[in-house]
Amino acid sequence: MPEAPRLLVVWHSASGGTRDLVEAAVEGATDPMIAEALGSAVDVRVMGAFEAGVEDVMAADGYSRMGDGERFGVVAMQN
Prior knowledge:
The protein is of the alpha/beta class. It has helices at 19-29, 32-38, 54-59, and strands at residues 6-11, 43-48, 62-66, 70-71, 74-75.
């Protein structure tokens, strides 16, 4: 069986509304039909936008960024 592809999901939500979107993405990535098509399960790692670092992104085969508004190329700060 091939090595599991690594998916990093980086997210942020001021109100918590993005959580459903993240959960749906993880559910889809870990669906048994995906594992069957790929020949292995997907290794999914979920991290907050202020927790993920360069090493985390570089270690992933793919990534998704959700709900973290950005301004001038960086995550928007909260008050």
